[in-house]
Amino acid sequence: MRGYVVFLRRPYAGRLLGGTLLGRLPNGMGMLAVVLHVRADDGGYPLAGTLAAILGLSTAAGQPVLGRAMDRFGQPRVLLPAACASAAGFALLAAVGAAPLPVAVAAVSAAGFATPPLEAGLRALWPDVLDGPEQVDAAYALDAAAQELLFTVGPLLVVAAAVVNTETALLITGALGIAGTLVVALSGPSRRWRGEPRASDWAGPLRSPGLRVLLLSLACAGIALGVYSVAVVAYAENLGRDLASGLLLACMAGGALAGGIAYGARPWAGAAHRRLPWLLAALAAGYIPLVLAPGLPVMSVLAFVSGVFLAPVLACSFTLVDRLAPAGTVTEAFAWIVAAIGAGSSVGSFVSGVGQDAAGVPGAFAGAGVGGVLALALCLLGARTLSPAAGPAVTADAAARL
User: Fold this and answer.
1) Which InterPro entries does the UniProt entry name for this protein (predicted)?
2) Residue closest to 64 by CA, chosen among 138, 135, 115, 130
3) Which of 56, 178, 185, 360 is at a distance of 20 to 30 A from 382, taking alpha carbons?
4) How does pLDDT run across 317-348, given as a tens digit for each residue?
C-alpha cells in the first residue's frame, strides 16, 4: 500500500483523482435516471430502455471525438463546454419528459455525446503529475479499481434524488458532471497540459495495429460486462428476490476494487504486453462458472471472483495505451478505450437478453464467458502487435516525410 500513499502525496494527485471520480458519477447515474424519469412520465419499458441505450451509445461515440479535440486544443477548452452541454441535455429531458419523442432523443443524445472525457484526460495527465512509471502504474490500478464505486454510489444517488422527483435526479446528474469537471479543469496540470504534435491524418491512434487489437479485445471484455448487468436481473427474478441483482452487482464491484488495489500495490516484473494475456485468461476463467447460476451464497462468491481481474486488466491496458498510441493522440487513444468497452457493454446487454429467451438464466450468463474467451483469443492472435517495439509510433515529422 505504500505505493498508493506515495503517489497520492504528489501535488494535485488526490485532487485530480477525486475530481475525476466526482465528474464521472453521471456515468453511473445517467441510464438509471433516464429510465426512472421516462417511467414516471408514463413511458413504457421499451421506450425507457431505448432512450437509455441511446444515452450509452452516444457517450461511446462522443468520447473519441472529444478526446481528439483535447489533444489539439488542451483540456479546459473542451472539458468545461462539454460538461455544460451534457448537463443541458439532462435538464432538457427533465423539462420535456418522453414527449415529444424527437426532443427526448435529442436531449439524451446531447447528454451522452457531450459527456466530458475526464477518464481519458486523467490518464493523459498522470505521466506529467507523477514521478516515474511505478507511480503511474499504481495510479492506473487505483483509478481502474475506484471507478467501480461509480456504479455503486451513482445508482444510490439517483434513487435518493428520485424520492423528491425524477427531474431532480436528472438535474443532479448533470450538476455533478459540471462540479467534477471544474475541479479537474481549473487545476494547474490540466491548464498546462498540451498534446504533442501529431500527424494530420483521420485515423489518429487507430493507425497503431497494437491499439486496434487492444480495442477489439477490450470490446469483448465489455460484452461480458454488459451480459452480467442484465443476467443478474434475470437471476434475481428467477430466484424471486429482487435485491439479489443489486447484491451481485456489488459483489462484482467489490471484487474489482480488491483486485485493482492488490494489483497496484506492488511493481510487476516483465513487460505489460506479456502480462495482459494472463490477466485476460484469469478474467475469462472467472466469468465461465457464472453459467451454473447456483444458489445465492455460492453465486455471491462467484460474482466477487468474476470481478477480481477486471481492474488489473484495465490497468495493464492503460499502460499499453501509453506505449502504443502515436505521438499527439494519447487522450484520444484513452477515449477509444472507454468507447470500446461501452460499445461492447451495449452489445452484451442485447446478447444476454437473447440468451435469456433461449435458455433461461444460464443462457443469460453464457455470453459473459464467451466475451471473456473472445477477449483472450483476440489478444493472443494479435500479441505481436502489442509489443511497443513491434509497432513504433509514427510522429508528425515522420508522417510529413512519407
Assistant:
1) MFS (IPR011701), MFS_trans_sf (IPR036259)
2) 115
3) 56
4) 998 988 898 888 888 999 999 889 988 887 88
